[in-house]
Recover the amino acids of this structure.
């Protein structure tokens, strides 16, 4: 355990560094859309209501109820390096849908224009602009999927990309087979809750040998007050297929904390490759630490023989983040990667990292984690590398770097290593550095203002991760860091 | 070019500069010499606006503007350049990116259009060559893993790109072997012209064999205690600083 708090205090006399902690959250608008929202509270009837609302088959209703009953027996975990007021699960609403969705839009023309406007504001154009970008988007607003673009073109390639609520009806055999296969219902407190009440999310299936012709993308947004968002994403890449998937998230500025508890499951069959990228910009709360999203997410992948799974995440939002995208390297020669940038400012708290579980022979994993702490935030990396008894010749490389801006924040590293095979090799490197006054002075003496300098230094620090992101998202991620850091240095 | 009057400055409430006066005309090269702790480096840092250096009295007017009222980056954009004694590393930020941001900021201030990437790269390549560094230095992180001599040449390259009005070289000769010293001196000499002025801060006379100053000043206990022509440097080399500090000046 390598616990570093305020190592920079001595060499950072900079008193101005905290003076301008002030941050604009560009996605913080609230859309006035008529919604159908379930009253707060959770019980079996609520689950049956959600299930009925979606016209789900009996097996799924039962599946949800089973998860609910498991959840009732579980306790909210407390091991993460975060402090927050636990949500009152009976005070949350578990279903909210924009009213115009009630009958189900047949095309974009039928979608509430206000809703589309919201996406425009977010810079997520659903129409022609997407054609240029070549990205197919599934947009999830509160609890339901609004539109999935490019469906025709994807169908031609045999790719299935649709809201999971729809996949339940159209491809029940696939959903039934894989749902909960990577993240079991009772895996943890939040995965159980999600399994019970998940409202919508994306479903992707790439057939054997198919290279998905475009990037797939989901955009999540929480709009209604006092709602939780429990989306569920399931991606199955059949043998020899390839897919790159992007996920973006925003929420309005609200004083109360909102809960986001998602589950993402990835299945990479033999020789398949899945690249999953996230740009998470949930509302982080204000500069006093009021409000913001609780982001408690379970993401896990299973990689079969020769398969490769790559998680890339840029986490700048949320008041509290609790997230460990993981890989179970089941098949021989399978590869798992985790590239992460987690930035916290003001009173944000992040406890994030990954788990690489090596089961097969010659499995390889790479972990590159970049944590940036500013303001009074706390940023923890927590990772597990486990080499099982069958993991002959398995290798892991972990690099874990922390950057501190100012002397009131904290960076923490909790690496766990378990090796049951003598031939397995595990390497771990960790560094902690600061944005120093000397660096800022050099930049300013060359005419570069402080904000630009900080953003340049932070971007440089994150370079190894950004190069893993698809081009346009790398640019967006860089800008997002700039916005998130605004005013963190005076 | 710059007129410094009665400059007083403190670091952590300890007075370092105690009434420094200095007038530099366009095109002149002034060497500042003096014993350790006299305030030589403080002068450069105060003029450049480094945090932690508090000006308690006096003025420094450059090209008609009071420098001491400007932000650090504004002074740089006005044409003040400080070549560091120990240039700091900025890992991950490529030299090229850093230089572009710097040149863009200065050009914007001067009301000029930003250079496009192609033209900038061409210019940067020229300058890298001029200071005898490999082109790969443009792609490397700013000063990241550079040797002492490479760092100094990198500073010189930045100076050449920015074409400042007033260049302050802070003990540029420290840690340089004779070859690197010559490269740096040649670069500086090539930049000398009738409009550009230099303040060369150095502890040893050696550098002044290569960069020949118009004036030499001795800084002791926060003030200039003696001024003269280039021959003063030789005298100092011979006699040391003791005779000046003992109040004979």
């Amino acid at each position: 355990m390598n616990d570093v708090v305020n190592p920079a205090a001595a060499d950072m006399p900079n008193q101005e560094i905290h003076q301008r902690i002030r941050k604009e959250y560009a996605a913080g608008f609230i859309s006035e859309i008529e919604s159908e929202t379930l009253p707060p509270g959770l019980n079996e009837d609520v689950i049956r209501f959600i299930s009925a609302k979606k016209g789900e088959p009996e097996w799924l209703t039962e599946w949800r109820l089973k998860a609910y009953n498991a959840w009732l027996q579980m306790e909210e975990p407390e091991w993460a390096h975060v402090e927050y007021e636990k949500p009152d699960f009976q005070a949350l609403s578990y279903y909210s849908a924009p009213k115009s969705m009630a009958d189900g839009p047949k095309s974009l023309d039928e979608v509430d224009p206000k809703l589309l406007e919201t996406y425009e504001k977010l810079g997520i154009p659903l129409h022609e602009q997407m054609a240029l970008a070549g990205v197919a988007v599934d947009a999830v607003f509160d609890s339901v999927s609004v539109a999935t673009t490019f469906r025709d073109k994807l169908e031609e390639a045999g790719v299935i990309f649709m809201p999971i609520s729809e996949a339940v009806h159209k491809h029940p055999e696939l959903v039934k087979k894989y749902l909960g296969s990577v993240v079991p219902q009772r895996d943890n407190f939040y995965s159980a809750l999600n399994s019970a009440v998940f409202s919508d999310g994306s479903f992707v299936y790439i057939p054997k040998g198919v290279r998905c012709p475009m990037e797939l993308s989901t955009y999540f947004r929480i709009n209604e007050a006092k709602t939780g968002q429990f989306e569920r994403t399931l991606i199955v890449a059949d043998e020899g297929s390839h897919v790159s998937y992007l996920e973006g998230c925003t929420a309005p500025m609200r004083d109360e904390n909102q809960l986001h508890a998602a589950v993402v499951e990835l299945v990479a069959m033999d020789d398949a490759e899945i690249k999953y990228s996230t740009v998470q910009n949930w509302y982080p709360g204000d500069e006093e630490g009021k409000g913001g999203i609780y982001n408690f997410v379970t993401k896990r992948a299973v990689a079969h023989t020769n398969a490769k799974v790559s998680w890339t995440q840029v986490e700048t939002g949320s008041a509290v983040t609790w997230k460990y995208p993981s890989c179970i390297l089941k098949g021989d020669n399978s590869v798992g990667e985790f590239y992460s940038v987690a930035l916290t400012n003001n009173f944000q708290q992040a406890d994030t990292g990954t788990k690489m579980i090596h089961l097969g022979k010659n499995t390889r994993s790479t972990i590159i984690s970049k944590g940036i702490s500013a303001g009074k935030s706390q940023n923890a990396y927590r990772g597990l590398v486990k080499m099982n008894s069958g993991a002959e010749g398995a290798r892991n490389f972990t690099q874990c770097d922390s950057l501190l801006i100012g002397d009131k924040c904290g960076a923490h590293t909790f690496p766990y290593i378990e090796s049951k095979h003598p031939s397995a090799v595990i390497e771990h490197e960790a560094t902690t550095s600061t944005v120093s006054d000397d660096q800022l002075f050099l930049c300013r003496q060359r005419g570069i203002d402080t904000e630009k300098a900080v953003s340049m230094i932070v971007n440089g620090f994150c370079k190894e991760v950004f190069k893993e992101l698809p081009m346009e998202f790398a640019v967006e991620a860089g800008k997002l860091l700039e916005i998130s850091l605004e005013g963190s240095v005076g | 070019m710059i007129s410094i009057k009665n400059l007083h400055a403190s670091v952590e409430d300890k007075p370092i500069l105690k009434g420094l006066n200095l007038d530099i005309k366009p095109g002149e090269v002034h060497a500042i010499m003096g014993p350790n702790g006299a305030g030589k480096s403080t002068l450069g840092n105060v003029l450049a606006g480094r945090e932690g250096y508090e000006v308690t009295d006096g003025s420094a007017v450059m090209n008609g503007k009071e420098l001491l009222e400007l932000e650090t980056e504004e002074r740089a954009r006005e044409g003040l350049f400080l070549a560091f004694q120990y240039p700091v590393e900025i890992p991950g930020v490529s030299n090229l990116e850093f230089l572009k941001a710097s040149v863009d900021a200065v050009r914007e201030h001067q009301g000029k259009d930003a250079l496009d990437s192609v033209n900038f790269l061409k210019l940067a390549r020229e300058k890298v060559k001029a200071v005898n560094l490999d082109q790969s230095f443009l792609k490397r992180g700013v000063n990241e893993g550079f040797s002492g001599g490479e760092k100094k040449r990198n500073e010189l390259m930045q100076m050449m790109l920015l074409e400042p009005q007033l260049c302050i070289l802070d003990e540029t000769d420290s840690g340089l072997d004779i070859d690197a010293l010559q490269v740096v001196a040649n670069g500086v000499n090539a930049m000398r012209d009738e409009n550009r002025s230099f303040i060369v801060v150095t502890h040893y006379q050696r550098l002044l064999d290569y960069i020949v100053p118009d004036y030499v000043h001795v800084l002791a206990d926060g003030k200039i205690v003696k001024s003269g022509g280039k021959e003063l440097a030789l005298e100092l080399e011979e006699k040391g600083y003791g005779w000046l500090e003992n109040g004979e000046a």
Remarks:
- The interface with chain A takes residues 48-52, 71-73, 76-77, 81-82, 84, 87-88, 90-94, 97-98, 101-102, 105-106, 109, 141-142, 158, 162 of chain B (CB under 8 Å).
